[in-house]
Amino acid sequence: MRLQSKNIVITGATGIGASAARMCAAEGANVFVVSIDGGECEVLAAEIKAVGGSVEWAAADLTDETQTVNAFAEAASRLGAIDGLYAVAGGSGRRFGDGALDEISKEAWDATFSINGHPAFLAAREALKSMLASERRSSIALVSSVLAYSPSPLMFTTHAYAAVKGAEISLAKSMAAQYAPHGIRVNVVAPGLVHTPMAARAAGDPEIVAFAERKQPLVAGMLDPDDLAPLAVFLMSDESRAITGQTIAVDGGWSVTDAR
After folding, report:
1. What pLDDT, in 10s, does the model give residues 202-249?
2. CA-CA distance, 162 to 199, in Å (whole number)?
3. Angle at 237 between CA 137 and CA 34, to 5 degrees
4. pLDDT at 139
5. Residue 141: phi, psi to the nearest 5?
6. Distance of CA 89 to CAs 114, 136, 192, Å?
7. 161 among known catalytic residues
8. Tell me: the pLDDT tens digits for 125-157?
9. Checking phi first, is residue 54 left (phi over 0); if not, alpha (psi -120 to 50) or beta?
């Protein structure tokens, strides 16, 4: 019960977020899930409660300031002070036209930044308000991507996505410096290619699947969301009380492997 009685907000109700919610609840946390899809939140919450976990949820579009403020106010009302934030919510910009920089429209760039940057910024801001008011030692972890610093032009030419995920790393570093005197830690989790709903295109492409087997040799393919959940628990727990301002990769070897 490494998270006994800690109040943890997790953004995202499928894939990486869902896996973290399950494991945090299993470790004793009071979990509050925020996602745009209320149906997905309800299914996840029922699953966690069925095995004795503590979980509440709110449906909110985290690109919308008012909805995000209201969701975090509800979290604070139901849980009390927020001890941890695991900010996962985001998505691929391919459907908007994300790709190589010389081919990206401003609309595609803005949309990709909106669905990734706004949820990270707004969730972190609202969590910080609760953490600063409570004066309790707290932890924030932003989920970025290995593509922020280890590009793969052969298979993943999505420059707007890489840019906004890099911005999250810079944001976390600045936040870590600002809020360390308040006992608030801020770190980044940088996953490789994970088998989530967002990665459905990749999972259905035999060429990308074969590439992942070479690029992520430690797992011989795509990561499972459960590969990341233990790190979420660690970063939310007091075991990581001396760690802040760090970017930790869970990438199956992606960033150190040549998969040509």
Report:
1. 778 899 999 999 999 999 999 999 999 999 999 999 999 999 999 999
2. 15
3. 85
4. 98
5. -130, 120
6. 11, 25, 16
7. yes
8. 999 999 999 989 999 999 999 999 999 998 899
9. beta
3-class secondary structure, 213 = helix
Angle between helices 15-26 and 229-236 (to 10 degrees): 50
- Residue 221's alpha-carbon distances to 1, 32, 246, in angstroms, are 31, 31, 26
* pLDDT attached to residue 118: 98
Q: Which of 86, 149, 161, 179 is catalytic?
A: 161
pLDDT in the model for residue 204: 82
Tokens of 153: 């032009």
Instruction: Tell which residue, 240, 121, 137, has the closest CA to residue 184.
Output: 137
Structural domains for the chain: 7-256 (3.40.50.720)
pLDDT of the residue at 195: 93
